[in-house]
């Protein structure tokens, strides 16, 4: 086998341009964690099933383990580290997750939050059933989902424009 | 696990893409669009392509074009773009019914319609739609472009008529005339999981009688297929629950199941019955 092919790329993550040289076979999830130190994106199964590595690409929720890092060039990436509006203020979904104890070990939480950010953008007034379907691709082995759903309903109300 | 090494190409034109495919066909060159099956297959080392040809940078492949009678879906159109609002009338309703069942939200934003056809999983909703509506695949190589009927394209479980040096450029689907009733039912163990059994039913009613019935089943068979016996029974008949029950029974009886199993046959019958009964 010849030397693995590498590419020099610029990733735009949470509003910042970051340059890396990466083997072409490296996934975006691995590049975020190991090259950029953004370890908030968690890797569970690395095959797209568990949902823990879900990030936002141009505002759409996608699996960071199912994209190559080289494919992310030219796109705006948002990870869990970029969700809060400032170091002193959490995103409304994060606030609601805290209030409802919607996390225990926290492994699935980054993927749930990014998935739900896109979902609430598309469906601002969801039913409980719609929320359960939206997070059907995110496995949580601690909470049993009830508190996650409750937090999402509350966050949806907080995010809706007030009449 | 991590994927094995490969050479990555991101051509900017279709001509370059098919030239790369032709040049590297012997070294297992593969086309990468959404990657929602290919990338995990590579991570598990079930696929070890020598060359990956990423077609996402080719302009125009993400386009859907809709005429009065047909839709053309480019090779990079994502599942998420093909919901109920993608087309008016019964065709759009049918797209919406199916799209809802394809994996999970963060997969639908990235995975593609045409990638699903190339993968040819027996549980693919889009393969089922292509067979149900007599869709065609536009395939291109350095030798030119050819159109392949869905029936001839899907050869069997995860096997297609696509040659190693060919790529799908688009899928073509005839839309459905106004007034067509469309129904879909799927059994899966959980939301977004692979279909165990699924069925599409479409028909119109003229002077109280069924015209143009189409029944297609998937999941329980090695590739999506039509149910000619059930369609023959429905054609020209008056729609009523007993007729639908008998048509569902015919569809299940004649289905070449992947294994002989009374449970799968029962799921098939119920899928067809619910697709027919739910058609609106």
What's this entry about, in short?
Chain A is α+β, with helices and mostly antiparallel strands.
Largest interface, chains and sizes: A-B, 35 and 30 residues
Structural class designation of chain B: alpha+beta
pLDDT averaged residue by residue of chain B: 96
Q: What's the average pLDDT of chain A?
A: 95
Order of helices and strands of chain A: EEHEEEHHHH
Return residue spans of chain B where pLDDT drops below 50 for at least 5 consecutive residues.
none
For the largest beta-sheet of chain B, the strand count, sense and barrel status come to:
5 strands, antiparallel
Give me the count of strands of chain B: 14
Q: How many H/I helices of chain A?
A: 5
Oligomer: heterodimer
Layout of strands and helices, then pairs:
The complex is a heterodimer of chains A (163) and B (280).
Chain A: E1 6-13, E2 16-23, H1 28-35, E3 54-57, E4 60-63, E5 76-78, H2 92-99, H3 109-122, H4 128-134, H5 146-159
Parallel strand pairs in A: 1-5
Antiparallel strand pairs in A: 1-2, 3-4, 3-5
Chain B: E1 7-9, H1 14-24, E2 29-32, H2 38-43, E3 51-54, E4 64-66, E5 70-74, H3 89-99, H4 105-108, H5 113-119, H6 125-132, E6 136-141, E7 144-149, H7 150-153, E8 154-156, E9 159-160, E10 167-174, E11 181-188, E12 195-206, E13 209-218, E14 225-226, H8 228-234, H9 241-254, H10 262-278
Parallel strand pairs in B: 1-3, 2-3
Antiparallel strand pairs in B: 4-5, 5-10, 6-7, 6-10, 8-9, 11-12, 12-13, 13-14
Helix pairs in contact in B: 8-9, 9-10
Describe this structure in words.
The complex is a heterodimer of chains A (163) and B (280). Chain A has 5 helices and 5 strands. Chain A has 163 residues and is an alpha+beta fold. Chain A folds into 2 domains: 6-82, Beta-grasp domain (Ubiquitin-like (UB roll), Roll), CATH 3.10.20.30; 92-159, [2Fe-2S]-binding domain (DNA polymerase, domain 1, Orthogonal Bundle), CATH 1.10.150. A 5-stranded mixed β-sheet of chain A has the order 2-1-5-3-4, sandwiched between helices. In chain A, a hairpin with a 2-residue loop joins β1 (6-13) and β2. The longest helix of chain A is centred in the last third of the chain and has 14 residues, at 109-122. Chain A is globular, with a radius of gyration of 16 Å. The mean pLDDT of chain A is 95. Chain B is of the alpha+beta class. Chain B has 3 domains: 7-54, Uridine Diphospho-n-acetylenolpyruvylglucosamine Reductase, domain 2 (2-Layer Sandwich); 64-174, 2-Layer Sandwich (Uridine Diphospho-n-acetylenolpyruvylglucosamine Reductase, domain 3); 183-278, Enolase-like, domain 1 (2-Layer Sandwich), CATH 3.30.390.50. Helix content of chain B is 32%, strand content 27%. Chain B has a 5-stranded antiparallel β-sheet with strand order 4-5-10-6-7. In chain B, α8 (228-234) runs antiparallel to α9 (241-254) and α9 runs antiparallel to α10 (262-278). Chain B starts with 6 loop residues before the first strand and ends with a helix. The mean pLDDT of chain B is 96. Chain A binds chain B through residues 1, 4-5, 7, 23-27, 30, 46-48, 51, 54, 57, 60-63, 65-68, 70-71, 115, 118-119, 132-134, 136-138, and chain B through 1-8, 10, 35-36, 39-40, 42-44, 52, 54, 56, 80, 103-107, 109-110, 190-192.
């Amino acid at each position: 086998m010849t030397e693995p092919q590498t590419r020099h790329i610029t990733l735009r993550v949470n509003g910042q341009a970051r340059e890396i040289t990466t083997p072409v076979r490296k996934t975006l999830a691995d590049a975020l964690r190991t090259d950029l130190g953004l370890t908030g994106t968690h890797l569970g199964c690395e095959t797209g099933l568990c949902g823990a590595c879900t990030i936002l690409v141009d505002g759409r929720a996608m699996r960071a383990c199912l994209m190559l890092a080289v494919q992310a060039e030219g796109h705006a990436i948002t990870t869990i580290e970029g969700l809060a509006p400032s170091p002193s203020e959490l995103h409304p979904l994060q606030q609601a997750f805290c209030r409802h104890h919607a996390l225990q070990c926290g492994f699935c939480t980054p993927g749930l939050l990014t998935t739900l950010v896109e979902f609430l953008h598309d469906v601002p007034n969801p039913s409980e059933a719609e929320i359960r379907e939206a997070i059907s691709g995110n496995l949580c082995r601690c909470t049993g989902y009830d508190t996650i759903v409750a937090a999402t309903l509350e966050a949806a109300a907080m995010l809706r424009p007030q009449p | 696990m991590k994927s094995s090494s490969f050479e990555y190409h991101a051509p900017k034109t279709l001509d370059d893409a098919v030239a790369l495919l032709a040049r590297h066909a012997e070294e297992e060159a593969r086309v990468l669009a959404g990657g929602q099956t290919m990338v995990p297959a590579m991570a598990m080392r079930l696929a070890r392509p020598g060359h990956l040809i990423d077609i996402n940078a080719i302009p125009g492949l993400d386009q859907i074009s809709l005429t009065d009678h047909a839709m053309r879906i480019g090779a990079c159109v994502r599942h998420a773009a093909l919901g109920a609002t993608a087309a008016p009338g019964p065709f759009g309703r049918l797209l919406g019914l199916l799209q809802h069942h394809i994996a999970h939200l963060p997969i639908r934003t990235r995975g593609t319609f045409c990638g699903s056809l190339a993968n040819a999983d027996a549980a693919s909703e889009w393969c089922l739609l292509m067979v149900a509506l007599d869709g065609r695949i536009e395939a291109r190589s350095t030798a030119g472009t050819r159109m392949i009927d869905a029936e001839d394209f899907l050869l069997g479980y995860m096997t297609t008529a696509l040659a190693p040096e060919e790529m799908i450029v688009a899928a073509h689907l005839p839309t459905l005339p106004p007034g067509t009733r469309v129904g879909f039912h799927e059994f899966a163990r959980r939301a977004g999981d692979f279909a165990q059994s699924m069925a599409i039913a479409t028909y119109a009613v003229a002077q109280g009688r069924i015209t143009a019935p189409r029944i297609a089943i998937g999941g329980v068979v090695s590739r999506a297929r039509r149910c000619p016996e059930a369609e023959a029974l429905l054609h020209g008949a008056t729609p009523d629950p007993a007729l639908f029950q008998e048509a569902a029974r015919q569809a299940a009886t004649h289905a070449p199941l992947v294994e002989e199993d009374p449970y799968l046959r029962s799921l098939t019958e119920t899928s067809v019955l619910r697709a027919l009964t739910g058609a609106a």
